[in-house]
Amino acid sequence: MKIWDVVIVGGGPIGIACGLEAKKKGLSYIILEKGCIVNSLYNYPLNMQFFSSSEKLEIDDIPFISIEAKPKRNEALEYYRRIVTSNHLKISLFENVKSINKTDGNFNIVSEKNTYQSKNVIISTGFYDIPNKVNVPGEDLKKVTHYYKDPHFYSSQKVAVIGASNSAIDAALECYRKGADVSLIIRGPEVGQRVKYWVRPDIINRIEEGSIKVYYNSLVQEITEDEIILKSPTGIISLKNDYVLALTGYMPNLGFLKKIGIHLSEDEKKIPHYDSETMETNVENLYLAGVICGGMETHKWFIENSRIHAKMIMQNILKNIKLVSKQQVNLG
User: Fold this and answer.
1) Domain span at 125
2) 256 shares a domain with 199
3) Same domain, 100 and 159
4) Which residues contact 270 (CB under 8 A, 6 or more apart)?
């Protein structure tokens, strides 16, 4: 069986950046992605606009040209797809990795399709696959979703949006503008401070004029077929309801990291252990890249501030390869 220099788990922007850097350094590599190219971005809302400007989303100094300063989802999909295809990156799509084990100094990576051996592994799997659940009765009803795609579906419907961050606020505004009767349920006292600066005034104005109803300091107690029941500062409130968008955030697959042997912090942040200069974890030759480095702090790492991880990792891998070669020469 071929032994790769690097296996990269995750084909998002940072996984692609790692593949580009491995190729430039002459390392044998393969990217394993469980979905399509930049699968998480593909699953973003259709009309989503990035907080970052296009130049901050660039990888490997490849220009990202967008119509507006802050690109939209479809522009990002095209940008990263073209990088993969024009650079002929070695990527296997729709191949979900099930396990990673280390034996005799190399890693065995088992996917749903194949088994690989590699000297080094990079985990760059993001955090968009596991929703933070509300954990209330009725959350498993068909009318409840933790992902939002297109507002047209909710036209003329009574829609409850749970959350106070960008995804929830974008969904509330878009559904309202497509004719939905929107109720926004926020557990805190205000709209989130990290909401995009050009969007936050919009939602506040819609709330103040009564176009979107808001329930601050409120928690969902139960969801039924035709209602959503809240615990608010004024007591229990029952709202007529057709659909619930529970957009309360997402989390990385921390269980997968623990299974591999990566240590996590003991507090609620669950930050993985890694060297901030090399991105190497407590498992030798196993690296982290991108948003996965933040554990439950999913707002800490973005494309723009984790692009550098690819260069840091490859520099350390090459350093280790040279060190091993030197030791072998000395032994010889």
Assistant:
1) 3-130+250-331
2) no
3) no
4) 254, 264, 295, 296
Structure tokens of 227? 């209602």
CA 188, CA 200: separation in Å to the nearest integer? Answer: 15
Spatial distance between the Cα atoms of 249 and 298, rounded to a whole number of angstroms: 9
Count how many Cα atoms sit within 13 Å of the Cα of residue 162 in the half-sphere of its side chain: 29
φ/ψ of residue 49, rounded to 5? -115, 135
- Neighbouring CB atoms inside 10 A of 277's CB total 9
What pLDDT digit, counting tens, does each position of 249-294 carry? Answer: 888 999 999 999 999 999 999 999 999 999 999 999 999 999 999 9
Q: pTM score, two decimals?
A: 0.89
In this structure, are 90 and 138 located in the same domain?
no
152 and 271 housed in the same domain: no
Structural domains of the chain, count: 2
138 phi-psi bin (left φ>0, alpha ψ -120 to 50, beta other):
left
CA 65, 71, 75, 79: dihedral to nearest 10 degrees?
A: 50
Contact 71, 45 (CB under 8 A): no
